[in-house]
Design a protein that fits this description.
mainly alpha, elongated
Length: about 450
Amino acid sequence: MSAARRCSPPRALAGLFVWHLKNTGIRQIPCQFVHLCHVANNRLITFQYFNFLKRMYVTQYNKDLSQRAKPKSDSVASPFCELQRLDQEKKVIHKIRPISPVHQPLSKTSNRNELREMKSAAETEDSVTRVRAESKEDRQWKEMKLRLDDLPGILARLSKIKLTALVVSTASAGFAMAPVPFDLTCFLLASFGTGLASCAANSINQFFEVPFDSNMNRTKNRPLVRGQISPLLAVCFAASCGVPGIALLTLGVNPLTGALGAFNIFLYTCCYTPMKRISIANTWVGAVVGAIPPVMGWTAATGSLDAGALLLGGILYSWQFPHFNALSWGLREDYSRGGYCMMSVTHPGLCRRVALRHCLALIGLSTVAPVLDITTWTFPIISLPINLYISYLGFRFYRDADRSSSRKLFFCSLWHLPMLLLVMFTCKKSLLEKEDKGDLLSESHGRAMEIRLP
């Protein structure tokens, strides 16, 4: 009893647990549990810690007492499976007979209307499918085949036939305004040679501007852009027009006219064309190019550069600014997309001011014509209304700066130039008046010389 009293309560509990294990027949105690018991003898073991040790021993070393998942008994079946089996047993395949449509008596008008609607629907579907097929074909790459029937039209668009016609008409006006007798052969040779030179210059211009024209809506359908002809064919066509044209002007007319034609081709292709992407000065260079054809007509008739040739060139020079500036104002998006440096894109205020200035300059140039003894004094009076009208439209364009005013100024310039040249031709001084005036001057000069002589 004295020894039992001396023992502490934790040690007594550990001893009872060891005695219980010996009586139940568990002889083999693992080393780790013995170690835990030795540790427990050296420490104060609480009841919670003892339960923890017991659970660790049971779960790790006695596999019979570990928890296991109970397998489901086979006898218990879900009610859904039984229902599925019953459904499979009771399945019967029934064939449904086709039901004949019920025909109701319809009137003839309703049948006709239905037929018309069916036909119209079919036609619309066919048109839609055709449009879709055409759009798909247009988007695909195609090999362009050149036909001989299409070649004249392609070459006409390559040479800008409308612009060439304007150039030839201005050259013809210069020839007609010359104070010499009219020579039909020389007139035809000068007109034909000028037209060939213009075709050559325009073809070379399109050859250089293919990558830039493809970005513009205005020029994307040109022959070289669409690949309708090869660049080699375009260059050959330009050479076949330029060389005979300059030779015809030089040998058939006079060397001065041939030199002016060659200089104009060089100025248009080698100066104006590359300057369109560099500086706005290209507009002034292009105006010089447009002013040379009437000078060529004058030199073709007279063989010399006179004041009348310079006056005609000045009229064409000033006319081009309201014409081109109004045109480029409506094409600003296209020019900026193509990479061209135009006044309407980079300097819109200057574009409008220059157009107005040159509209007013046409009034002054018309007044100079009778002073230089090219026309009578009726020309500035008759031409004043049309010059004032284009000046008024130029002022509207300068003030409003919109598409409407630019379009009105552009379309006015289209009929203003031929009208002005026609009025100028009708007011031209006749050769008899000039001869009489020359005789009077010579007689007065002779009398003055006689009076001076003793």
